[in-house]
Amino acid sequence: MQNKRRDFIKTVGMGASTIGISGLMMSSCSDTEEKLESPSKQFLKISEKEAIVETEYGKVRGFQRNGIYTYKGIPYGGNTTRENRFMAPTKPKPWTGVRNALYWGNAAPQGGGLGDPMEPDFNHFSDWFTFDWAEKRYGEDCLSLNVWTPSINDNIKRPVLVWFHGGGFAGGSSIQINAYNGENLSKIGDAIVVTVNHRLNLFGYLNLGAIGGEKYKDSSSAGMLDCVAALKWVKKNIANFGGDSENVTIFGQSGGGAKVSILMAMPSAQGLFHKAMTISGAALKVASFESQAEKARKFIKAVGISSANLDKLQQLPWKDLYMITRTVPGLRSGVFAPCLDNLHIPHHPFHPTAPSISAGIPMIIGNTTAEYSHSKNDPSLEDITFEELKQKLAESPKRGGFFGSNVAFGERAGKVVDAYAKVFPEKKPVEIWSLLAGRNGQIKQAKRQSANGGVVYNYLFDWATPLYDGRPRAYHNSDLPFWFNTTDIMDTITGGGSRPRKLAEKMGLALTNFARTGNPNHSGIPHWPAYDDEKGAVMILNDICEVRNDPDREARDLANKILNRS
Fold first, then answer.
1. Cα–Cα distance, 163 to 179 (Å, whole number)
2. What pTM, to 2 d.p., does this model score?
3. Domain coverage including residue 73
4. Model confidence over 276-305: pLDDT tens digits?
């Protein structure tokens, strides 16, 4: 089930270097030459006459690999440049003939991660090596999606999984890393996988509504309206790709999980999906309208235009506008995000309660046990003692940070550390440090959606990577190849081989079963009970999966009390 391309390439490469040209010539002239494999053994097929699907805007042609049909870069929205910049998405222009869907669409304008320059690093833990950044090109006209399906035009209604990528609201794309490749997930679960590109940072979330009035009323939510437009495309077109438009699951990780959370609170998205999953990205609140309007005022001042001639923003090259976010203090592109616009996002996603318009929607909610690994770039911290950890936490001047990586417990730090160490006796002090950030957002989202009538399944991903001497452990992003069943493709995260592959198959089947029925259970894992506030059941995903009842509740409650986190 796993992708064999790397092994194939290695095998071919070794063979060619071993026998050389003369060897190939001798083999081709040999009387004992074996017959070529039949075409059915090909792992990739492409033809002018095959893999053609009708959409409402025209026909598209994809290709087959390992028995799965792939379609890349299908437009679901119109051009977003010039007069369409900062506007709600429009429909694509229809085309005649057959359009090739053989290559990725543009990634939205961005820098790296949360808007910082994508420069190679020389840390112990290298993002460039680990994630093998894969964007092919950037462009403002970026509304496209990709589809993987086991079969087409067959009237079989398969479950549909629509993926929203991470990177906060400023970075990433549907193909940022190869972990997002939907081929294996589609194959293992007989499901349709769709991944989406949409507008980001200032092009998706610059709040000009308070400055430019009615014309720019959609500007602060444009990127989220793109996500809604993608779901509308799925509703209208996925049947011809073998999918069921009445059985759609939206899922996303990190910033993608936040997008899923927000979609659940958007009236325009109601009815376009039926299940949801947030992976290390349970967003409870969004920014205020005024805070984002103030950032927009600062931005146009930096550009050098007034509120009276905002339309000039639609004429300037996008690269010039984007560079403002790279050079002006306080305008890093990560600051632009969805807000309460009293229009498309009328209230917070999961605060103080779950959104009523998503009542009854089943969810999977969870995160990793080491979202932030303190020792990944500092090997010396592997040997930190509990007393040293308590001292660090007592003296820490910060709160928050990346996933709460810097927290100030003061003189009660020792009690919090001891509480977590009691729950997780097998973990070293540096691992307890990561756990202290807690999973408050995930638990609150689970509680509130359960109270909203939705069945919720909670998990903790605890599979530690063997790479980098094991220091990063189950870090932020490390579960992505497991949910997509791409652990061999992403061996720079997993190490490859049978060990991660076994867990990936379990997780891929759980996800596709959930998409199909609303229940992730299958014979390969222990029974995964639904979450309730009393027991708080959580599936620990590791080489050996197990269910525990809210194991860190007492420790988490103590930490929250000390930090005044409600």
1. 12
2. 0.90
3. 66-95+106-118+126-289+339-358
4. 999 999 999 999 999 999 999 999 999 999
